[in-house]
Amino acid sequence: MANLILIACLAILAILITISLFLAGGYLWWRHKRSQLQFIEPTEDENSSSYSLKVPQAGVQDIYDVVTQPSKPPQPQQTQLTTTPANPLQNNLNRKLNGFLNLKTPLIGSSSPAVPSKTSGSNSTADNSKDATNKNFSMTDMYIDNCDTSENVGQIHFSLEYDFQNTSLILKVLQGKELPAKDLSGTSDPYVRVTLLPDKKHRLETKIKRRTLNPRWNETFYFEGFPIQKLQSRVLHLHVFDYDRFSRDDSIGEVFLPLCQVDFGTKQSFWKALKPPAKDKCGELLSSLCYHPSNSILTLTLIKARNLKAKDINGKSDPYVKVWLQFGEKRIEKRKTPIFNCTLNPVFNESFSFNVPWEKIRECSLDVMVMDFDNIGRNELIGRILLAGKNGSGASETKHWQDMISKPRQTIVQWHRLKPE
């Protein structure tokens, strides 16, 4: 009898504990949801093909989205989000994303820039305008690979429009044409992923069009709360993928459009040829060159690499970069970056300066080798490039060097495809 009473008491106690945990969990979940930014649900049916993102209205400082130098990182700044009552028209403009998101920070375009000081005189105004242009194009070079390619992977049709009254960018992804087949059936299941660089975290996607090489998406995306000045430092990235249910989606092609090159006075329509994904097994290297004739300093900055060839049995590499300054065939000076373990996409952010007289700048070259470090045995070469004015390892490398000479005191950023030995 005593055992039965003990078992009943334990059962009741267990039920009470379970109920308490359930109520506590529900309360914490409710508090968590209240503290996060919510998207306004659409009032129309789910077949609507229009989406929007809301970001806080920019203040005076948000007008200037400055691309800061690595030596002066931006100070973190918290953004206070406010909500306003939505009217029916606003509800029609605010569409649901292809996946419900809750974020405490704006999805696209949060900045903490410094406001340039107001100065008098036309020279100062011209200098500021020139600096802003240089920064925009430097940021553009960070993402755009200017290497020529003869492979045809189709085209994409889209349009851009700017709503000055509501400070909103309106993107319409219309259609694709002559996409390559990625499936065994001789077709693809394409969709488009949309980002506004440099923000890579938050992305929008079109719906998937099944079994077609000439898809028609006809979908509209609204990027709200973007003053026209802020858009000047953004790069529109459209990346077409082939959907695969059982494996990773295949990249079909991509296109980059610097918004500083778009005239928003009228609605613009574009047909752009897609660029194929990088197939070079060695990977790619992003670097910059700068030469100061006044003090004869040549500066090479190794920013990052991507899609490096795996050299280890774990499918990774331990990359580092070795740089030789050469005059003709003679090696003069060597520099190295630190080793980055177990990665195929290292971020180096290393700068090397060399003393090169102006009269010899056209005769010298930089032999840049991306290596895989090995504890046992000899370090292996992943890929290399030769930056030179005459006999570079490719047209891209030669052009990079010539641009550096023709634009002294300017930092020239460019992607290069690594070559095997």
From TrEMBL:
Query: Which superkingdom does the taxonomy of this entry point to?
Result: Eukaryota
| PROSITE patterns for this protein | C2
CDD domains on file: C2A_Synaptotagmin-7, C2B_Synaptotagmin-7
Keywords for the protein's UniProt record, in alphabetical order: Repeat
Residues of the region (Disordered) are 70-89, 111-135
**Which GO terms of the cellular component aspect does the record hold?**
axon; exocytic vesicle; plasma membrane; presynapse
Compositionally biased, Polar residues: which spans?
111-127
Any GO BP annotation: vesicle fusion
Pinpoint the C2 domain residues: 152-272, 281-416
GO MF, one example: calcium ion binding
Which InterPro entries does this entry report, sorted A to Z? C2_dom, C2_domain_sf, C2A_Synaptotagmin-7, C2B_Synaptotagmin-7, Synaptotagmin
> Under which name does UniProt file this protein?
Synaptotagmin-7 isoform X2
Originating organism: Glossina fuscipes
Gene name of the record? LOC119643021
